Amino acid sequence: MSWDYAIIGLAILAAGGWLGWRSWRTLRGKGACHQCGESTTCPFATDDSKRSG
Amino acid sequence: MSGESVTVAIAGHPNSGKTSLFNAITALRQHTANYPGVTVERKEGTCRYKGHLLRVVDLPGTYSLTAFSNEELLARDYILQHHPDVVVVTIDSSNVERNLYLATQLLELGVPLVLAFNMADRAEAAGLRIDHGRLSALLGVPIATTVASRGKGIDELLAGIIQVAQAGPAAVAAQRRVDYGKDIEPAIAKLSELLGGDGSTSPSTRWLAVKLLENDDQVAARIRLDGRGDAQAILDEAARARQHIEAISGDASELVLAARRYGSIAGACAKTVTAVAAARQVASDRIDAVVTNRYLGLPIFAVAMLIVFQLTFWLGNPMAGWLESGKDALAAMIHRMGDGLLVSLLADGVVEGMGAVVQFVPLIALVFVAIAVLEDSGYMARAAFVLDRLMHRVGLHGKSFIPMLIGFGCTVPAVLATRMLEGRRNRLTTMMVLPLMSCGARLPVYVLMLGAFFSNQVMFRLFGVIPVTDQAMLLLVIYAIGMVLAILLARLLRSTIFHGEGGEFVMELPAYHMPTLRGVALHAWQRTWMYLRKAGTVILAMAIILWALKTWPALDAGRRAEFQAQREAAAAGAAAPGRQHVDELIQRIDLAEHRAGLEHAAVGRIGHALEPVLRPCGFDWKIASALIGSLAAKEVFVSQMGVIYAVGAHGQEQSLRSKLAADYTALQGFCIMLFCLISAPCIGTVAVTLRESGSWKWAALQWGGLTALAWAAATVVYQVGRAALPLLGG
Amino acid sequence: MMGRHGHGGPPATGSDQSAGIIPLTQVQAGQEVTLARVDAGRGLCYRLAEMGLTPGAAFWVLQPGRPGPFIVAVRGARLVLGYGMVHRIHVRPQQRSCNVR
């Protein structure tokens, strides 16, 4: 029985953690954008370091 | 040529098939931006040809290499700084004169060039005959004919690239340059001398001289920095030369040079390009005359979208139904495996939550296919024109329609596309209203609501033949409301907070194309894949979280015992009405327990807390709690409704749609759609608005303002509807 | 990029009329014209030029906006000109018209 709780707990932590981390990154303007199919034409999708200069 | 690898840059007009060429060479899958003016980061890929490794870079589509636009600077800077071994210029064979303009500028730059006369099939079909051999000789540049979308002519092109790469400076020396005429060439010669022709080819002194005559600020700055010869003397001489040109012609020097370039191109084309029949273009213009007609344009667009939606529902509804059954079967299977919390997480959380979103994939994919067809055929540009004219009538100038059309797919790149707009105020206004152009993520919500509350009966027949159902019609209505609100809101913002002029743009209308099956499938698949990926990540995570929120705090033992007692009582009274009736009773008790559990748990409490605010809109606590989740992504609303309504083992006897239909009215369903249409954009949009506008103020205004408007609209519609419907007998 | 006008001198409507120059806004569909003058900064003028609308270039109007954007045919391509742009363009009508009805 306790295995169940362990798995559930992990799943919740993983989900919450991942969402939080991703939201944080999105708000800070970093990271790949998986939001939509336009990603290849979307400058938002590349890290600042990769911008042509 | 650096030993082993050859760097190739691909330049060309936005609509010349440049990206198809890039794809054909590198076998990469990249999406073509169909809207010229949207800044595209450069894309890179590789290709192996006869033992050579080619590193290929796709430059942003540009019309020329001036210093007046960011994309042009981007393309130009890449060539200047990275010195590609070869530059391939994509030429739309149906439009040689204009497409060669960029090539002439590259010729001046002194880079080894190869011309790819693309879309050769179309040109031939249109009756154009091009003497490539002669043109090649006139320009001193190898020419390959290609049909990039079908992968034809690529070998020929690659062979040409390698040949030029290996020839190096010799290839450049063979290239011809534009002769600017007796009144300008001496000035160029003099400037080149002053610049100290040191034999370096790129950038050639001729190019620098021409740029100085064009009053190019970037080049002037560079000359000052580089200290090439006596900078001030050079700049003074350039100014003198410009004044001389302007005095003679009455036009600015850069315009004169532009005109000379075109003149030179026209001369070359006159000798090599013959139009046997211009029939195709006239046909295209005739279509345009109808499609952009001031009276017919908008109705045609509305009808086109209506047909799109109708087809989507007609083909997609059955498929969505199958997926839903599959999901239900899966959940039922998991339930049979046991009774514990883990089972619940998997079945009621993961499967229901993700399944609710995934089941709409066929419908979403069909919409994407339709949009791809409209885009690839070139119709979308005409639609953009029609919308722009509409917006102009209500006082909105400028090319805001481009970001708005992109916003139909996803608001995030649409906000970024506002970079192309001139005027900060114009950009901010557009950014504020963009979320109203209903994005793809909201589609599952609409489809769910439409499926639940509207019978998909045929309302009328278009042109007497095509059946239009209430679902398709209402979907069109929702999109139309979004657009109308966007325009009205923009107008309001423009007249109160923002003022400004606009409308100073020039855009090319792409030629009509027959969309290829491959192209459409590719575009549609890419977007569908993104949708699925989102389902597998954000929505999965949210589903798990919501499951947790609906499971805890759990009903205490006392209340559960109550429900159990009820079940036993029902089973005990089995004798009288019969077994079936008992099952139903027990189901209802299960449902009641489930509801109690929901209300007791976190999700219920949050929902109930919000309910007072949302009750005027006709929403209850369940809808309220689902709306919160949609902050992360709009589709989550659907997923959350799925999770909330998953009643454990009995959850699969009814579809989510029928459960919703049982609980709510059509009016409420419509208000949900309305609220979803207008309200808070997802976190991705907020983030990008924050970035592009530069301050929290605008992002907050967008989020807050739209949500308030959503609330107001839903409230008005709900209250009025509730009052009016009994009167209408509805 | 603002700066001096792209074309020599400020506009003088008096001499416009005698030279047969009219604003593009007054041109009908199907009418062929040549570019006489653009009242705009260097950037806009050059933008038009690189798209094919160089001084003296011949083009014709397919869809007049009035108000709103125009569609014109120039050097084999179809261009959409925003109304803010159309305001600033002055042309000389040519005798020929095109049968694009």
In short:
Chain A has one helix spanning 2-27.
Description:
The complex is a heterotrimer of chains A (53), B (730) and C (101). Chain A is mainly alpha-helical and 53 residues long. Chain A has one domain. Chain A contains 1 helix and no strands. Chain A has one helix at 2-27. The N and C termini of chain A lie far apart (57 Å). Residues 31-53 of chain A have low confidence and may be disordered. In chain B, the strands form 3 sheets. Chain B has a 6-stranded mixed β-sheet with strand order 2-3-1-4-5-7, with helices on both faces. In chain B, helix 15 (341-358) crosses helix 28. The model of chain B is unreliable at 31-40 (pLDDT under 50). The radius of gyration of chain B is 31 Å and the shape is elongated. With 730 residues, chain B is an alpha/beta fold. By secondary structure, chain C is of the alpha+beta class. Chain C has a single domain, classed as Ferrous iron transport protein A (FeoA) (SH3 type barrels, Roll), CATH 2.30.30.90. Chain C has 3 helices and 6 strands; from the N terminus they run αββαβββαβ. Chain C has helices at 13-19, 42-50, 83-88, and strands at residues 22-23, 31-38, 58-63, 70-74, 77-81, 89-97. At the B-C interface, helix 3, helix 12, helix 13, helix 17 and strand 11 of B face helix 2, strand 5 and helix 3 of C.
- Total beta strand runs of chain C: 6
Q: Residue-averaged pLDDT of chain C, rounded?
A: 77
How far the N terminus sits from the C terminus of chain B, by CA atoms, comes to: 76 Å
Task: Give the spatial strand order of the biggest sheet of chain B.
Answer: 2-3-1-4-5-7
Global structural class of chain B: alpha/beta
Shape of chain B: elongated
Average pLDDT for all residues of chain B: 81
Q: Architecture of chain C in CATH?
A: Roll
Terminal CA distance of chain C: 38 Å
Strand order of the largest sheet of chain C: 1-6-2-3-4-5
Unreliable segments of 5+ consecutive residues of chain B: 31-40
Kindly report the oligomeric state of this protein.
heterotrimer
Our count of helices of chain B gives 32
Structural class by secondary-structure content of chain C: alpha+beta
What is the fold named in CATH at topology level of chain C? SH3 type barrels
The interface involving the most residues is between:
B-C, 52 and 45 residues
* Helix content percent band of chain C: 10-25%
